[in-house]
Amino acid sequence: MTREEYTKRVLAALRRVTEAERTSIQAEIDAHMEDHICALLDLGYPPELAEERTMALMGDPEEVGRELDRQYPLRWLVLGRIAQAALILAVLTSALGLLSGVYGTYKNLQARLAPWTFISDHWEAEISQKLDIRLSVGSDVLRILGSGTGKTEEGEPAATVLLCCYDQSPFGYTSGLRVTFEDCRGQVCFGGCGSTSVSGVVDYSDCQSTVQYGDPYLTVVCERYGERYEAQVPLLWEEDA
Amino acid sequence: MKKREKQSSRKRTALRRCAILAAVVILASAGNLYNFLPIQAVWDMADLNDIEHPRVVRRFYDGTLPVTRFALHYLVEGDRAMMLCVAGYHPLFGWYDRAYARVETWDGAGLYAEVYGHRQGGAETAYLFGRVDDPDIRCLSLRITENVHGEDPSTRTVEIPAADIRERDGELYVLTKLEDVSVGAYNAFEVLGFDEAGLPVTAVEAQQHTWAT
Questions:
Q1: Which residue ranges make up each domain of chain B?
Q2: Closest Cα to residue B155, out of B112, B188, B198, B191?
């Protein structure tokens, strides 16, 4: 029996190995036999005898094959394959989630660092002074970006307040705070808001409220679980400008 | 003599892949990239609804609507509000916020209630949920006024089964499925609490939150 035949008989007894493992085992057996044959050659053995003694020392090839086969339990192969498939799936779905997740975080950071890059020209035109007043309301931040004054369609004096609301965490969602307005006399003001919600992450609102001409400020009020959060928004009238 | 490479055993390979998979799942979950578990969608909805320190009271499955066939319903309690929410699943997005209704529970009232409704096509599901804080209340009933703004509103009362009022961690929660009930602006709901003798203790109007898919 030659070395090649010995190796072939060992490999034939392997039932539970993959092609890569079979190649690896073959290389391992060849290397092991090579080492042993070299050692015997160094001791002066002739090549044929060295090969014969090596194969005899390694034992019955079928028995060697069965013993090697037992060292490759099927359960680890199955677990490894399942983990590999799950890993590919997890990476693919996470990559998809990365797109929306990064977008949400980007919008949150935009609201914190550069909110005016989101504000439309139409909204910006209604503002006569830019502000940066921030209220922490629960896990959200209510940020007053600016105020303006003018008149309603009916010719009544009105104030405009530009707001945005975002979560304190760049990865969180805003609860969509509801605000009301009070004039400097503590009276509730009536009006309306136009809002834009960006993926539930940031809310921008442009609110108009009726006031009296010359009122120095408007109070933005947010009620949450019976607690009152408020901020005074200065108003700039034409004669003040 | 050629140096032999150390071959990775199957066990080592499988465990290494499992470890990498766990790392990817943890990173994706922590970074909100993909919700691998429904509870993550519940936490997102709690954030959306300003529910502080959300705790799951009940979890159940109701596949009546096509949109809830791959979804789980959760009754969630927070510090000052509670919600009934639906976490849906999509292979591309993971578990996500499908629907929710919220009721605030901070003002010391003895009874809190909210009606959640969801329509899809011709099918509809509706639930009444809430919490009973008044220890005198022993049973509840629901008064439904239909066509409330119409010329001829009709009113009927249904008993809320005792089995739908359950205790959990010292609190009494209500969760009952409303059959043959349509949720919407044309109907009004009022929950009535009665004591052991059947005498009325309190009544609260249950606000409604409806979804249409």
A1: 35-212
A2: B188
Q: What is the pTM of this model?
A: 0.79
- Interface touch A31/B91, C-beta < 8 Å: no
Whether residue B94 lies within 8 A of chain A, CB to CB, comes out as yes
Residue B100 · residue B48 · CB < 8 Å: yes
pLDDT tens profile B71-101? 999 999 999 999 999 999 988 788 999 999 9
Give whole-number Cα distances, A22 to A55, A57, A96, A102, B94, in Å.
Answer: 19, 22, 37, 45, 39
**Does the distance separating the beta carbons of A72 and B10 come in below 8 Å?**
yes
Domains, chain A, with CATH or none: 3-72 (no CATH), 114-240 (2.60.40.10)
Q: Does the predicted interface ipTM exceed a cut of 0.85?
A: no
Token pair, residue B119, equals 């329509």
Which of A16, A87, A100, A223 to mutate: most B Cβ within 10 Å? A87
Instruction: Give per-residue pLDDT as tens, A94-129.
Output: 888 777 778 888 999 999 999 999 999 989 999 999
Is the Cβ of B6 closer than 8 Å to some Cβ of chain A? Answer: no
Residue whose tokens read 């808001």: A193
